Amino acid sequence: MALPLGALLSFAPLNTAAQAGEGTPNPALGGAQAGRTWRDIGVGVGVLGTAFLLDRPTRDLALNLQGGVGDDLADLGHGYGDWKGTAPWLAGGGLLAGLALDGDRGLGKATSAFFGVFAGSMSNTLLNWTLGRSRPREERGFLHFDPFRDNASLGSGHTAYAFAIASAVDEVTEGWWAAPFYAVAVGTGLARIYGDRHWLSDIVAGGFVGLWVGRRATRAAAGWLRVNAKPGVGDQAAASPRIEPLVFADGVGVRLRF
Question: Taking the model in full, what pTM does it have?
Answer without folding.
Answer: 0.76
